[in-house]
Structure formats: structure tokens, C-alpha cells
Amino acid sequence: MALRLHTVAARQGLAWLRAAFATYAKRPLGLTMLFVVFLFSAILVLALPYVGQIVVMGALPLLSLGYMIATRAVLGGGTAQPGHLVEGLRGDARHRAALLQLCAVYALATVVILLLADAVDGGRFERVQLLLATPERTPSENAELDALLVDDRLTWGLVVRFGLAALLAIPFWHAPALVHWGGQGVLQSLFSSTLAVWRNRGAMTVYVVAWVGMIALFSVAVGALFGLLGTRQLAGLVALPAGLMFTCVFYVSLYFTFVDVFGEPEAPAA
Known about the structure:
Layout: H1 12-26, H2 28-46, H3 52-58, H4 60-75, H5 93-121, H6 124-132, H7 139-149, H8 152-172, H9 175-180, H10 186-199, H11 201-229, H12 235-262
């Protein structure tokens, strides 16, 4: 694939979302099952002691590439298949090694970010998650949760956790596709992805803001609707499938952010 880095208008950020939702509507079951298969596989892998979580984190670049491949298949009139998740590993040895190295770098960087965040907040984030997941908290647990939520160390831990995660997403945004379709090496793909995101920062900003605004609007609408009906506790029944749909649409949208910037892929690199 001959790569040409294009700079697109900021309004393309909205076009990526529209294209993703339209594509998802063509094959909602297949594109959803793709994520469900990954999710169940991740649950099995997480049962492995010590390395399970690292393997799952390292598999995320393969998940994004799998969705790009599946999206391309759907646009060509085909269907999304679970095999798309590992199709990137079916190339030649050099190609496969580059993808696996990319996954390893991503896993290592994620582990470093989590360790830094834990060092900053002293484990407060994990404790908050545990308390929020407790359906019936005691008065002392409620008091502990209230104190944690206003703790400055928790706030700075969240800044480190999500701020560094956002920065990590930049070099890895296009990197799996650049390895698969562009035949680039690990360092070259990370550099090309970073350069592409920077040159198209206007469109990427609109894209991110549109996602945040849409999800916030949906949450407010669902909360208000179930509040008026007096069944606010049932809002989770809508939030779960909606969250799954939004996640799938997000991964579908990655393909459109790639082809707008680098062009339509022709075939995996030999």
C-alpha cells in the first residue's frame, strides 16, 4: 500500500462518527459478536495468574485492527467474522512479528501507566471501584467513599491514569493498520500515527468532543426518562446494551479515521 498522509478538515470528525453508525447498522449482530468474542476470550485469559491481565492489555491493538478489517469487509458487502480478530497475524513472519512487538510495547506502556497512577493515588482508585460495586454499603463504607471522592490524591491519580492513557492512544491510533496494510515496522508505525494525529488534530478534537457530548447526552436522557417513570433503578438495563453498542461503533470508526488520512487499503503487506 502506497501511504500518503493527508490532512482533513475538522468537520471530518463528525463524518467518521456518522459513517461508523451507518456501517454498524448494516451488520449490528456480526460487529457486536466480534467484541463479545474478544470479551469472553479476555475473561478466560484473565484467569491465568500473573500474565493474564498483561496479555489482555497487549491484545487491544489486535482488537482495533480486527475491527478495521471487519469494517472493510462489511463495506465490501461481507460480514464480520471472529476470525478477523486474528487475521492480522496470518501474514508473513516479519509482518506477524511487528504486530506482536507492537502489542508487547502497548502492554508494557499500559503497565507503567497503571503503576505510576497507583503510586500517585496509593490504591484509592481501586478502593473506590470496589465500594461503587458494592450494592449495599454500610454507613461507614459510605463515609469512606465520600472521603475518597474528595481526596486530592485520587484526583491526581485519575489525571495521571487517564491523561497518560490518552497520550498513549496517539501513537497506537493508526499503528496496527500501518503495520498490516502499510508494511511498516514498529517504530515507523508509531511515528506515522503520531504525525497523522497531530496534523489532523482539528478533526480528532471534533471526533472526541462529539463522542463525549453524545454519551453525556444519552446518559442525561436515559436518567431523566427513568426518573420521570419512577424506575431509575432500571436505567442499567438500557445502559448495558447501549454501552456495548457505543463500544462497537467506536472500534468501527477507527477504520474511517485511517482511510481518510492514509487512503483506502488495497491488501495486507507481503
